[in-house]
Amino acid sequence: MGFFDRVKSTFLHWIYPRRCAFCSAVISPKETICPDCVKKLAWVQAPICKTCGRGLPYCKCRKRYQFCRCVAPFYYEGRAKSAVLRLKFYGRTEAAAVLGAQMYDAVVREYGGNPADVVCCVPAGKSTLKKRGYNHAELLGQQVAALLEKPFAADALSKVLDCPPQHSMGARDRWSNVLGAYGVENAQAVTGKAVLLVDDIMTTGATLNECAKVLKEAGAREVFFVVCTVTRARTLVKAIKMSYNAKSPVGLVTKGIYSSQVGTAKPAGVKPMAQIGKGNHTEPLA
Ligand SMILES: [Zn+2]
Ligand SMILES: [Zn+2]
């Protein structure tokens, strides 16, 4: 970077300081996440389940899924959960850049490179799109595809049944709620290909399983997932919180792990996101 570029960058940072996507603290232009969030975010750590992507102690795989594997950078807790909720319900679409970069890191780290021929996203229903004005999974998918340098087929899947949102259902009802809810809109984009499907969260895996099923029926060779967050059992979360308090403010996360995870992020490749729409959901932030 030349002298004038450095002056311009410093001036812009002074007027529009870069902010942490998780806590809004001002960060330096070189950082993507503030040091406090790096310590406190609930990172998914090895060893992880080769199916659901949770750390092995928190694996909840109870059945055979239609997809090969899912990976995620975070558990759906604390600051990561808040960032996802802000992106999903409050129109904070700029968070997709940082979250997408962490999802890209998880893909490269856990799949050992680039597993997909094409990147797709879990589609939103018509009523959700009308209410929010955007599909948050599509914003994440755009980021992941751009960083992987793979084509992004936003129209590959569609939601054909406008069923109630999964977060409003109990764990058991989620499987029946999404049955027949998704269809393949653009079969040409997925036939014979390894598909990386992107979403914000995996809870029971019902939505991802249903999407994988229709993609395979349409001729997809393999279906992999990357989500921003995965849930873990509440009792285990409680045990971890106790462990956090007993050991250190940082808890079970080791310094080496955050530095390696953050160090592999590629903020330079992250494309800036426009503020696309305003969410009007009233779900409280965690
Ligand atoms: Zn922060
Ligand atoms: Zn598992």
UniProtKB/TrEMBL annotation:
InterPro entries: ComF/GntX_DNA_util-trans (IPR051910), DZR_2 (IPR044005), PRTase-like (IPR029057), PRTase_dom (IPR000836). It comes from the Bacteria. It holds the Pfam family DZR_2. Residues 11-58 form the Double zinc ribbon domain. Residues 162-238 form the Phosphoribosyltransferase domain. Belongs to the ComF/GntX family. PANTHER family: DNA UTILIZATION PROTEIN YHGH. This is ComF family protein. It comes from Solibaculum intestinale. The lineage of its organism: Bacteria, Bacillati, Bacillota, Clostridia, Eubacteriales.
